[in-house]
Amino acid sequence: MDYIIKTDDVHKSFPLGNHEMLEVLKGVNIEVPKASLTILKGRSGSGKTTLLNILSMLDDPTSGKVFVDDREVGSMNTRQREAMRRYNVGFVFQSVALVPIMSAYENVDFALKLADYKGDRDARIKEVLSVVGLDKRMSHMPSQMSGGEQQRVAIARAVAHKPKIIFADEPTGALDTTTGLGIIKLFKELIEKEGITIVMTTHDPNLMVFGDAVYEMEDGELRYVPAEQ
Question: What is the mean predicted confidence (pLDDT) over 121-148?
Fold first, then answer.
């Protein structure tokens, strides 16, 4: 299988005030297949968000190696990492963080400008908002949308610049069950249509069935969950 992300014995520790270290990740090894939905499940405090931050190059491991798109992250300089995140990575969070004074269209356009998108921005904005089912809501402001609709705008914003990987941290955490399931089904459609890879965290056991690969994080340790479970 072709993997877009791999780790080799990743550890992450944080200093405590008494000169001790809190070990949050304990020798994590993960393989993320290309064009797939990989789910990291676990309770709050299990270490899954810390792992997501390391996989997305927002943070560094204390030890171990991370490979993204066949490049070892530790060998990149700051500029190379920033370029990788800017052009090849998109983010979706539980808090959608849309710009409140911008319409859905303008929020996506703003993201394309930040990513220095070279294509036809207008066409791409309309395309992604249509894909997420908001082609008739482009001119609406975030305050005029439901939570699910706002999250769909956030997803359109994340995929607009055609990244290779989307990292989603608890993207359904603030949504009701039906709306959350709709977001996951949208992720699956985007994988099919856009060919992107999505890595998401969740504590919702109802979403596990949608994962192409599922890992469980507990007390800083990661284990692969076979599909039959």
Answer: 95
Indicate the length of the chain as a whole number: 229
Residues whose CB falls within 8 Å of the CB of residue 60, separated by 6 or more in sequence, listed in order: 54, 73, 74
**CB burial readout 12-36, b (16+ within 10 A) else e:** bbeeeeeeeeeebbeebebebebeb
DSSP classification of residue 119: S
As a whole number, the mean pLDDT across the chain is 92
pLDDT of residue 229: 46
- Pairing mode, strands 31-33 and 3-15: antiparallel
So what's the pLDDT on residue 120?
96
Q: With beta carbons less than 8 A apart as the criterion, state whether 109 and 121 touch.
A: yes
Looking at 3.50.50.60, 3.40.50.300, 3.40.190.150, 3.90.1570.10, the CATH number of the domain 3-225 comes to 3.40.50.300
Determine the Cα–Cα distance for residues 85 and 73; give it in Å rounded to an integer: 11
Closest CA to 104 of 63, 83, 77, 132: 132
